[in-house]
Task: inverse folding
């Protein structure tokens, strides 16, 4: 029981720390510039993270949390770290649109998804939507291969 209590307190500490950092960052961003252009991405993301923190705190306090699982070995994340490194290095050549789609497809494949239609459909849809979103939101051009940059 002592181990579960320690995990419970550690989880609460991490959740409150994340919420505190988000509030601090939001206040700092607002202090720097309260213009909507500065806050157009920061405010919605901050509100989503804070909402998730509140939900997680209530979930933890109510006792509706998972039993402590055995952590995965560190070696199990090496393929994902390698994939992410290749993704970042390939963006200048593949562009953000194609590179993101390929990264998502490879990530799903590494994690055991074998339905080709699902992998390709999700990767292409998500990759191109994210690329469109960031190309519209960021004030500088993104390297794209297919979509207009």
Result:
């Amino acid at each position: 029981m002592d181990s579960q209590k320690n995990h419970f307190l550690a989880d609460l500490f991490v959740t409150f720390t994340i919420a505190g950092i988000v509030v601090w960052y939001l206040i700092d961003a607002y202090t720097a510039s309260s213009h909507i252009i500065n806050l157009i991405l920061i405010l919605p993301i901050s509100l989503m993270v804070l909402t998730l923190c509140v939900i997680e705190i209530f979930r933890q306090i109510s006792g509706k949390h998972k039993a402590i699982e055995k952590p995965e070995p560190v070696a199990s994340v090496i393929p994902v770290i390698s994939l992410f490194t290749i993704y970042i290095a390939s963006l200048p050549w593949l562009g953000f649109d194609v590179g993101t789609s390929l990264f998502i497809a490879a990530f799903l494949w590494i994690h055991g998804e074998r339905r080709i239609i699902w992998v390709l459909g999700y990767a292409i849809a998500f990759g191109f939507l994210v690329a469109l979103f960031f190309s519209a939101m960021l004030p500088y051009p993104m390297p794209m291969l297919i979509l207009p940059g």
